[in-house]
Design goal:
This protein is of the alpha+beta class and 246 residues long. It contains four helices and eleven strands. The strands form three sheets. Strands 2-11-8-4-6 form a five-stranded mixed β-sheet, with no helix packed on it. A four-stranded antiparallel β-sheet has the order 1-3-7-5, with no helix packed on it. It is elongated and about 65 Å long.
Length: 246
């Protein structure tokens, strides 16, 4: 029994030493994926839309969390982030801007801000911005592929942002939402989204909105439209018809 305990102590000590040596020896930075979210392109993809933002919003920032392996330093350390041109359809300074990034001193995690620009072209399409962390003198190693919860291997050094300002007519508009918001138009839905901060209104399933909730939304949008028309020319849709909330 004593020999067994001694062996276990030795093995435990060796394991701790190996883990410690490996941990302190690696200096890398990697993306923290949101494994609880469901993305159309995998957990290394982030979807963003300007549709639900006020019309005065011309840019927004998407924050990508990252973490390091190895020890924290007592000073800021540069993080190099590059665009993967072959997998990117967005145009620099037209659709996005990158900033200077660093890991703050005495920190193991931070977030990298990617500035998305609300260009008019986003109303007709969705664009992709593919990004990859680059090794540098501060973080010379990249993470090896890791098996994530969705059963797929990810490098943890790549992420892509899919963004748009394109509206999609809710499938339940003509059968249900028409009772609250009237005849559909793109201008009307964009105005509704800017007021409520949402552009979909499910009427069935677990996330279905109740009748009183939709009535509340209807009144909120109606009042916002009255306020808008009071200080501006009456809002008209893409067909030249006045926007009306019943």
């Amino acid at each position: 029994m004593k020999k067994l305990l001694t062996l276990l102590v030795v093995l435990t000590a060796c394991s701790k030493a190996e883990i410690s040596e490996s941990y302190t020896g690696q200096q890398s930075v990697y993306f923290i994926y949101n494994t609880n979210a469901i993305y159309s392109g995998g957990i290394d993809s982030v979807n963003y839309t300007f549709v639900e933002k006020n019309s005065t919003v011309t840019q927004d920032t998407v924050w990508l969390p990252v973490r390091i392996t190895g020890n924290a330093a007592d000073h800021d350390r540069a993080i190099d982030l590059a665009v993967v041109t072959g997998k990117t359809t967005a145009v620099k300074d037209v659709h996005y801007k990158l900033l200077n990034y660093h890991m703050p001193g005495n920190s193991f995690a931070t977030s990298l801000g990617i500035v998305l620009l609300r260009d008019a072209s986003l109303r007709d399409t969705s664009l992709v911005l593919s990004l990859r962390l680059q090794p540098n003198a501060q973080f010379p190693e990249l993470m090896k592929d890791t098996l994530m919860g969705d059963g797929t291997y990810y490098s943890r050094s790549q992420v892509r942002i899919v963004f748009t300002d394109r509206l999609t007519k809710p499938g339940n508009w003509d059968t249900y939402l028409v009772n609250f918001f009237g005849v559909y138009s793109e201008v009307k839905l964009r105005f509704i989204a800017s007021v409520l901060g949402i552009s979909t209104f499910p009427s069935s399933g677990a996330g279905a909105l109740s009748y009183p909730t939709l009535q509340y939304y209807q009144n909120t949008v109606r009042n916002a439209l009255l306020e808008y028309n009071g200080g501006n020319p009456p809002l008209t849709d893409e067909n030249g018809n006045p926007v009306v909330i019943p």
